[in-house]
Amino acid sequence: MIVKENKLITANLKDTTTLHNGVKMPWMGFGVFKVKEGEEVVESVKAALRKGYVSIDTAAIYGNEEGVGQAIKESGIPRAELFITTKLWNSEQGYESTLKAFETSLNKLGLDYLDLYLIHWPGKDKYKDTWRAFEKLYKEGRVRAIGVSNFQIHHLEDLISSAEIKPMVNQVEYHPHLTQKELHAFCKNEGIQLEAWSPLKQGQLLSEPVLVDIAQKYNKSVAQVILRWDLQNEVVTIPKSIKEHRIIENADVFDFELTQEDMDRIDGLNQDSRAGSHPDKMTVGF
After folding, report:
1. 226 occurs within a structural domain
2. Which one of the listed residues 53, 62, 127, 174 is annotated catalytic?
3. Quick one: three-class SS letters along the chain?
4. Phi then psi for 236, rounded to 5 degrees?
5. Is residue 273 part of a domain?
6. What domain range includes position 39?
7. Above 70 in pLDDT, residue 133?
8. With 80 as the cut, is the pLDDT of residue 6 above it?
């Protein structure tokens, strides 16, 4: 990886950002949200691993941790070369319940440790107890890095105020219609790596005229332009697909660089609009 004029220029799928605890996390990973347990998730993850992805992102609520684990095992890739993330579901928040849920996820994945464990949604009143359990798991070496997902600035400020260990990652909905600049700046200032889920807004951005125009300029797809925008903004990104040609296409973003003008045009598409729930209104599972 090289940095040119303060813009991130990654060379391949194995390039990493260094989290504040020194752990290296790949800039691009493969997400399995809504990928069905069984053959679909096994074959999708194996296709991603064949292509060269080394970071796989799942969650307890996705219901496909066993398939992800099976794919990892069948790939034959040494465990130490992979970066595996899963997330604690809302109904399991709390100190003891978090520790139990972690063991369940680890067993389903068939792993001895996780690279990254995230609190899936903040909720209102349990994430501090949950975080104490995360800190315990981290200190015991069961997880190489701990973080959160869907945390707003006020959640992060509240958590950090009593935490012994600051979150290393905040995975949030992030795409050209939701640029989250204040949150991104806050995380950068605190040394928390921002990570994008739903980088393509669940496909809603693929016909956006400005993005189509920019894609034609670079002879790339709209998806590739968005993912390149993520990377040049120093945001980790985890696109998902069950189609092998899309998995390959999504990774083909290392041979071009968006100009600052085009980066600004994409930034200008912000609408503060979401494909998913607003973190302050997400109550499912709590």
Report:
1. yes
2. 62
3. CEEECCEEECCCCCCEEECCCCCEEECECEECCCCCCCHHHHHHHHHHHHHCCCEEECCHHHCCHHHHHHHHHHHCCCHHHCEEEEEECHHHCCHHHHHHHHHHHHHHHCCCCECEEEECCCCCCCHHHHHHHHHHHHHCCCECCEEEECCCHHHHHHHHHHCCCCCCEEEEECECCECCHHHHHHHHHHCCEEEEECCCHHHCCCCCHHHHHHHHHHCCCHHHHHHHHHHHCCCEECCCCCCHHHHHHHHCCCCCCCCHHHHHHHHCCCCCCCCCCCCCCCCCCC
4. -65, 140
5. no
6. 2-267
7. yes
8. no
Per the annotation, binding residues for substrate are 120
pLDDT in tens, 229-242: 999 999 999 999 99
Number of domains forming the structure of the chain: 1
- What is the model's pLDDT at position 7? 53
Residue 155 has pLDDT above 60, yes or no: yes
Polymer length in residues for the chain? 286
Note the pLDDT tens digit of each residue in 214-225. 999 999 999 999
Q: Is pLDDT above 50 for 5? A: no
Pairing assessment for the beta strands 16-18 and 24-26 based on DSSP bridges: antiparallel
Residue 106 lies in a domain: yes
Residues annotated within the binding site are: 120
Centroid of chain to Cα 170: 8
Work out the average pLDDT over 43-69.
Answer: 97
- Residue 52 sits in a domain of what CATH number? 3.20.20.100
Does residue 242 fall inside a structural domain? yes
User: Does the pLDDT of residue 213 top 50, yes or no?
Assistant: yes
Which among 134, 82, 122, 148 is positioned nearest to 283, based on CA atoms?
A: 122
Query: Is 127 among the residues known to form the active site?
Result: no
